[in-house]
Specification:
Chain A is of the alpha/beta class. Chain A has 13 helices and 13 strands. A seven-stranded mixed beta sheet of chain A has the order 8-7-9-10-11-12-13, sandwiched between helices. Classes of the chains: A alpha/beta, B mainly alpha.
């Protein structure tokens, strides 16, 4: 009797196991590394939510040509070692692509994804991830940091009315993320005819920036670029206001979002924010679906970028699946075949090329005005090959 | 029949590392196990195993300095970085082979460690800890700013080693290189501690005034200790860099130094095997914790979020509890276990 039950149980278990195996075989496996509880979680959460929401939306519609996307989120809490461990697990599970997050882990994984031939879409927009000799399997969906900095400089120069050269300074933390765009940015600033008056270091965890702001004041900088995160930007803006600086700030993509008002108050007024995606509720065609999915619950701009990042990947999966090449190299080729992809105005159109993974060369420039972000202009730069990787 | 107690009849016998046939067989089996183990592990665990081996070298290094010579160092992370960058520069930028890069990494880091070890003549304890902490910050600053050599914020992509046509591209093949180097370096350290130099280190640690009166040159042995310790760090860093195939400054911050210090405290100060235990413990613990969290997540999703957030706290708590209940480290516990079985069942 007992033996019989065990036997039946075993048969049922086997059947279930097989059924599960069959069900997953048709699925498309994708990895997702997110920071939900680590130091960058305040922006990591909305970004990850954007990715997952779009995946759920596609699965709800029947998936990619009838195949569901199997993408479990892993919270690596901004710990590189955890990210690498999890990535090794993904490789074993034969994922066809990975949605990643931060600079440190994306860079640490660059060599591996190239070797394992797994396309990796990150939220780290360092220009050197576009260096095809080093990072042939890396992708992202926003213009790189340096390009955005160049766009900011161009916007300022175009609106500069005085005869003398505008003076510009650079404020950034002493970490790879902060330093990466400086070299290319300075070269372009010189080319445009800026006078570079110097660099200031403000750490990501800074709680005051008085000495740096005093130095900026004595240098008489007309403009200053801020490359940090939103909290460090708030510190800089507040201290600058306190000391009565006339400097106009323009801020890198991760250093400004809707939260800046909460942190900096009216000190944020007049600052320029560089962005790559539309704000929630902006009047663009793609926003309708986001509003529907999020049930009109406000999300910040990082959510939109996560959403678009998954949108682009799904497009590539569709192409790869049609060709019957649902594997790493197949998805890479599919991504590289994407031309002028319309995200419904959520970002500028996206194009990937086998020799150039820069999605586009455009940056949106917003001005912070009394609790509102006002779109001033979308700057489009030429796709110069000598800028690739710099 | 084997009798209880030591029955050695010659000095050669007394100086053997593996003293009984039983231990020889055990060590042989253990080595065989290490050779087979990677074939039984999945990719993620193989990677962890690889990191454990590399960390063992680094931990032995800092144990030579801190555990055996009594010089606290908070700069191990940066010294790992010096090794990684040296090997990266030699292999990626100069185009020489891995087999040149790794020893060179050891030598360069040893020199670098000796420079930062010079204050050890005058400074002791906490003062020295702060001086080595300074080395951590200085080196980190150099990593990120000396662009011509370190690649600055861009980092350096480096190749895996190769012999002729064959490249050790997979983690599995690379594991065997690391295993061989680890075994050699641990053997060397074990032997070193039985030589005149090793005894001098311990004399300096236990009572530096007495040591000096006995004719031990403090300056020489402290500096030597810094050199050897940094050599180990350099090799470990180089192996780590090649395992990851990419080196950036973010990988060698103060956190790494603290983890290495924790390794030898948990493993056992002044014990080679303790360093290895510590490396195993510190590398495995985060993984164990995340596996536990995953299980909790499946059964009790409501507290999962809390559990993930608490992971760091639990990590700290385990270490504190460890220090309270096992202050002499895992090496001491290992000794007790061995003693128990040696005398079993007559433990009197």
């Amino acid at each position: 009797m007992r033996k019989g039950t065990i036997r039946i149980a075993a048969v049922v278990a086997c059947a279930l196991f097989l059924a599960a195996g069959v069900a997953t075989a048709a699925d498309i496996k994708v990895g997702h590394l997110a920071d939900l509880t680590g130091p960058t979680s305040s922006v990591g959460n909305p970004y990850a939510k954007g990715i997952q929401d779009y995946k759920n939306y596609i699965n709800g519609k029947g998936g990619i040509n009838g195949k569901k996307i199997d993408m479990l989120m892993f919270d690596y809490a901004y710990d590189k070692n955890k990210a690498i461990n999890q990535y090794k697990k993904y490789v074993e599970e034969k994922v066809v692509a990975v949605q990643g997050w931060g600079s440190g882990d994306t860079e640490a994984l660059t060599g591996f994804v190239a070797q394992d031939k797994i396309p990796y879409i990150s939220a780290s927009y360092s220009a050197h991830l576009m260096d095809m000799s080093k990072a042939p399997y890396n992708f992202f969906i926003a213009a790189d940091y340096t390009t955005q900095l160049r766009a900011g400089l161009k916007y300022i120069k175009d609106n500069w009315k005085e005869k003398r050269k505008p003076k510009v300074a650079f404020i950034y933390p002493n970490v790879p993320y902060g330093i990466a765009p400086i070299k290319g940015g300075k070269e372009y600033a010189k080319e445009l005819g800026f006078e570079i008056v110097g660099d200031e270091e403000v750490g990501l965890k800074a709680i005051e920036a008085n000495s740096q702001m005093l130095s900026l004041k004595s240098k008489g900088a007309d403009f200053a670029w801020i490359g940090g995160t939103t909290p460090s930007t708030a510190v800089i803006l507040k201290d600058a206001k306190k000391l009565g600086l006339k400097t106009k700030f323009f801020v890198n993509l991760w250093g400004n979002d809707e939260d800046l008002f909460k942190m900096a108050g009216d000190a944020a007024d007049g600052a320029l924010g560089l962005q790559a995606a539309a704000l929630y509720g902006e009047n663009v065609p793609g926003m309708k679906l986001i509003k529907e999915i999020t049930k009109n619950q406000y999300q910040n701009t990082h959510y939109v970028r996560g959403w678009v990042s998954m949108m682009v990947l799904c497009e590539a999966l569709k192409i790869a699946d049609k060709k019957g090449q649902l594997n790493g190299p197949g998805v890479k080729a599919a991504l590289e075949s994407i031309k002028n992809f319309d995200t419904g105005g959520l970002t500028s159109r996206i194009t990937f090329d086998p020799k150039d993974h820069r999605p586009n060369m455009s940056a949106k420039i917003y001005e912070y005005q009394k609790g509102k972000l006002v779109l001033k202009k979308t700057i489009e730069l030429p796709r110069k090959m000598e800028w690739l990787g710099l | 029949m084997h009798y209880c107690g030591d029955y050695r009849t010659s000095y050669e016998k007394d100086a053997e590392i593996l003293q009984t046939p039983f231990i020889k067989v055990c060590m042989g089996l253990f080595l065989a196990f290490l050779l087979v183990l990677p074939h039984m592990l999945k990719g993620e665990y193989l990677w962890i195993l690889l990191q454990i081996l590399i960390a063992s070298i680094g931990a032995v290094g800092i144990n030579i300095l801190t555990g055996f010579t009594g010089q606290i160092s908070l700069g191990q992370g940066a010294f790992l970085g010096v090794g990684a960058y040296t090997s990266a520069y030699i292999t990626a930028k100069m185009g020489l082979s891995f087999w040149v890069g790794v020893p060179a990494a050891g030598v360069v880091t040893a020199l670098c460690g000796m420079v930062f070890g010079i204050p050890s003549l005058r400074l002791k304890g906490l003062y020295l800890a702060i001086a080595t902490l300074a080395s951590q910050f200085i080196l980190e600053w150099i990593f990120i700013r000396w662009e011509a050599v370190t690649g600055g914020s861009y980092g350096i992509t480096i190749p895996r080693p190769s012999i002729g046509e064959f490249t050790f591209a997979s983690d599995l093949s690379y594991y065997y290189i690391v295993l061989a180097i680890t075994v050699l370096m641990i053997l060397f350290a074990t032997n070193l501690m039985r030589t005149r130099t090793g005894r001098a280190f311990m004399a300096v640690r236990d009572h530096y005034i007495s040591a000096e009166i006995m004719g031990i040159s403090l300056f020489k042995y402290r500096l030597l200790s810094f050199g050897i310790s940094s050599f180990y760090a350099g090799v470990a860093g180089a192996l780590f860099g090649h395992s990851l195939k990419f080196v950036t400054s973010e990988q060698f911050n103060i956190e790494v130094s603290v983890v290495y210090l924790a390794m030898i405290i948990i493993g056992g100060l002044g014990s080679i095997i303790g360093s290895v235990f510590g490396a195993v413990f510190m590398i495995l613990l985060p993984k164990v914790l995340s596996v536990v969290t995953e299980i909790v997540q499946a059964d009790l999703p409501s507290i999962a979020k809390l559990a993930i957030a608490f992971e760091h706290g639990i990590f700290g708590l385990i270490i504190v509890l460890f220090l309270i209940f096992e202050p002499d480290g895992l090496a001491h516990r290992w000794k007790m276990i061995k003693a128990y079985w040696k005398l079993y069942p007559f433990s009197y």
